[in-house]
User: What shape does this take?
Amino acid sequence: MREAYDRYSNVSILIHWTVALLVVANLLIALAMSDHRELFPWHKSIGITVLLLTLLRIVWRLTHPWPHFPERMPGWERVLSRSVHIAFYVLLLAIPLLGWATVSAGRGTGEIYGFIQWFDLPVAKSPELRDQLGGLHEAAAILAVALVVLHVCGALKHQFFDEDVVFHRMLPGLRQSHMDDEI
Ligand code: HEM
Ligand code: HEM
Assistant: This one.
């Protein structure tokens, strides 16, 4: 059985903040893309990177210890927090996969990062399917934005109202003595 741990591991922290940055960048790129088609190769490349980092992250999460919730955290908040985290893992896989399926049903994925020839997902080439997948891709991204707002509100609540360790344990370099006071 895996042990509980007092903070996220450096690998978890690094992947969390890298993926958060890449997702926000890709949302901004997506907004700008209709006027700037030249940004689309970046959108694909960043999105596939998020997919690969999320696969790595899920494997890491399942094979390494992670922190327990603080003892005084109420049950409803634990359920909400865990549900949002699981929904994130699902969406961080589903959003890039749907985007990838969209281009696979259309013109093909082509290159990522300008030099890596990427393969297509096995979906039929069809303009209708392409549009449907594109719609699902966008809807999933909008759901992710709503969850990010909820997630950030949760993090700020822990930091400024509950004043517990939840925010700090996702930051690099927390001293053990600080954790001992709180857990
Ligand atoms: C972090 C991952 C991703 C996020 C957050 C994201 C987000 C979005 C959003 C919000 C849009 C809608 C843009 C608009 O209509 O104004 C969009 C469109 C699109 N994205 Fe992504 N995307 C991601 C990954 C990918 C990947 C990996 C691909 C392909 C390999 C891709 C392909 C597309 C395509 C083809 C469209 C246009 C869809 C259409 O015309 O209906 N996306 N993306
Ligand atoms: C696109 C943006 C983001 C995504 C997809 C995301 C995703 C996640 C996920 C999946 C976890 C759960 C880790 C686990 O498996 O236990 C997590 C934890 C966490 N995130 Fe984010 N995050 C994002 C942005 C942010 C931002 C902007 C903040 C802070 C303002 C933040 C603060 C935290 C904190 C404090 C935790 C630890 C929660 C705990 O210990 O229970 N995240 N995040």
Q: What stands out?
A: The chain is about 65% helix and 0% strand. The first helix runs from residue 10 to 33. The longest strand covers residues 111-112.
